[in-house]
Amino acid sequence: MAEENKGFFKGLFKKLGIVGAEEFGETTADQELEQQAQQEPSAPEQPPVAAPPTQAQSTQPVATPAPAPEPSAPSPRQVWTEPTAPAPAPVSEPVEQAKPSFFDRLKRSLSKTHETIIGRVDTLLLGKKQIDTDTLEELEEILITADLGVKTTVDLIRTLEQRLKRDELQDGAALKRALKEEIQLRLLEHHAPLVVTDKKPFVIMVIGVNGVGKTTTIGKLAARYTGEGKKVLLAAADTFRAAAAEQLETWAKRVGTDIVRHKEGADPSAVVFDACKAAIARGTDVLIIDTAGRMHTKVNLMEEMKKIRRVLTREIPDGPHETLLVLDAATGQNALSQAKLFKEAADVTGVVLTKLDGSAKGGIVVAVCHEYALPVRFIGVGESVEDLRAFDPVQFVDALFQ
Ligand SMILES: Nc1nc2c(ncn2[C@@H]2O[C@H](COP(=O)(O)OP(=O)(O)OP(=O)(O)O)[C@@H](O)[C@H]2O)c(=O)[nH]1
């Protein structure tokens, strides 16, 4: 990128208080992770309740937290509608409220991101008779500040400039259409859903810093695969925090799956070893491994990952079949820094972006996918089981632009 561009973005990041622009020598990914690890999780933890131990537990009974609370519905997007005729008189029988479709829920979840991107694009285009390079420059600023990432934004703007030269952007509507198409193309380029093959067990290792929603995502995945008739086993290899294993155990009970856990502070590799043995012995279809997020440096992270993999591959030579990185979309640029670090340190094969509901930083989905060529496997749009969805780029972009 040209020096003057760097200067512009550096100034812009400063002005907007965005962290994680290591490309500009401001913060390194390691520092980002360290800061993140020292921060409290972005959502409150669950209150503990007493619960009996499960089958494969190797320790005494422990306290387990209550199931995750149901999410409160995000506020619906404000839309102007034509005034209609007065409502008919109320009917006496109770009318059953239709459950909104997932697309409607997705749209509602993305409403703040919609405002941050499309709302500002609409304002920019308001009353514009003609699209020119100045318009595209302003669009560039909107996209960067809406967490689409510098690299992705620059790439998008260059493409739009070429389309402008080809006379394809005659008006605001054409520009919006082109922007939608180009974002969709970039998401589709690296898109690949997670396919659980008939390898027995199919091993999914879940990684990410603490508080991003790893345990919740594992619970939701366990519910999904159990619902498909698969036999699931959870491995509580996050032995760093006692509450992590307890929380996972609560999910195991709720979903009706087995869990392997050790005492707090135990060696995560020992948990993985036991879980692999148990999964093979029990004919498990899907083994999901929770790992600790409190890994301060890239070296630590790599060492921990190497050790877990060494133990795992001794028992299941071609595992893990998926290394799923969980990122909290609400953390915007920090999520992007984490994607960089984990991709370098842990052979990530797919990403889950959680907490898209109520976040204005949903643009990060495009940045993670395009900048790091990582397939987004699932998105989380709430705390309940049905709020983890397989990522569909076309549906996502439709919901964002509508
Ligand atoms: N709104 C919303 N909340 C979520 C979502 N996914 C997870 N959460 C909440 O985020 C909080 C943290 O989730 P956890 O699953 O405990 O995160 P973790 O990464 O396992 O955290 P550690 O156990 O500390 O490593 C919990 O309160 C979850 O209910 C989501 O998609 N939307």
From TrEMBL:
<keyword id="KW-0547">Nucleotide-binding</keyword>
<dbReference type="InterPro" id="IPR004390">
    <property type="entry name" value="SR_rcpt_FtsY"/>
</dbReference>
<feature type="compositionally biased region" description="Pro residues">
    <location>
        <begin position="64"/>
        <end position="74"/>
    </location>
</feature>
<keyword id="KW-0342">GTP-binding</keyword>
<keyword id="KW-1003">Cell membrane</keyword>
<dbReference type="InterPro" id="IPR000897">
    <property type="entry name" value="SRP54_GTPase_dom"/>
</dbReference>
<feature type="domain" description="SRP54-type proteins GTP-binding">
    <location>
        <begin position="375"/>
        <end position="388"/>
    </location>
</feature>
<dbReference type="InterPro" id="IPR003593">
    <property type="entry name" value="AAA+_ATPase"/>
</dbReference>
<protein>
    <recommendedName>
        <fullName>Signal recognition particle receptor FtsY</fullName>
        <ecNumber>3.6.5.4</ecNumber>
    </recommendedName>
</protein>
<comment type="subunit">
    <text>Part of the signal recognition particle protein translocation system, which is composed of SRP and FtsY.</text>
</comment>
<dbReference type="InterPro" id="IPR036225">
    <property type="entry name" value="SRP/SRP_N"/>
</dbReference>
<dbReference type="InterPro" id="IPR027417">
    <property type="entry name" value="P-loop_NTPase"/>
</dbReference>
<keyword id="KW-0378">Hydrolase</keyword>
<comment type="similarity">
    <text>Belongs to the GTP-binding SRP family. FtsY subfamily.</text>
</comment>
<keyword id="KW-0472">Membrane</keyword>
<dbReference type="Pfam" id="PF00448">
    <property type="entry name" value="SRP54"/>
</dbReference>
<dbReference type="InterPro" id="IPR042101">
    <property type="entry name" value="SRP54_N_sf"/>
</dbReference>
<feature type="region of interest" description="Disordered">
    <location>
        <begin position="25"/>
        <end position="98"/>
    </location>
</feature>
<dbReference type="InterPro" id="IPR013822">
    <property type="entry name" value="Signal_recog_particl_SRP54_hlx"/>
</dbReference>
<dbReference type="Pfam" id="PF02881">
    <property type="entry name" value="SRP54_N"/>
</dbReference>
<keyword id="KW-0963">Cytoplasm</keyword>
<keyword id="KW-0675">Receptor</keyword>
<feature type="binding site">
    <location>
        <begin position="208"/>
        <end position="215"/>
    </location>
    <ligand>
        <name>GTP</name>
    </ligand>
</feature>
<feature type="compositionally biased region" description="Low complexity">
    <location>
        <begin position="34"/>
        <end position="43"/>
    </location>
</feature>
<feature type="binding site">
    <location>
        <begin position="290"/>
        <end position="294"/>
    </location>
    <ligand>
        <name>GTP</name>
    </ligand>
</feature>
<feature type="compositionally biased region" description="Low complexity">
    <location>
        <begin position="52"/>
        <end position="63"/>
    </location>
</feature>
<comment type="function">
    <text>Involved in targeting and insertion of nascent membrane proteins into the cytoplasmic membrane. Acts as a receptor for the complex formed by the signal recognition particle (SRP) and the ribosome-nascent chain (RNC).</text>
</comment>
<feature type="binding site">
    <location>
        <begin position="354"/>
        <end position="357"/>
    </location>
    <ligand>
        <name>GTP</name>
    </ligand>
</feature>
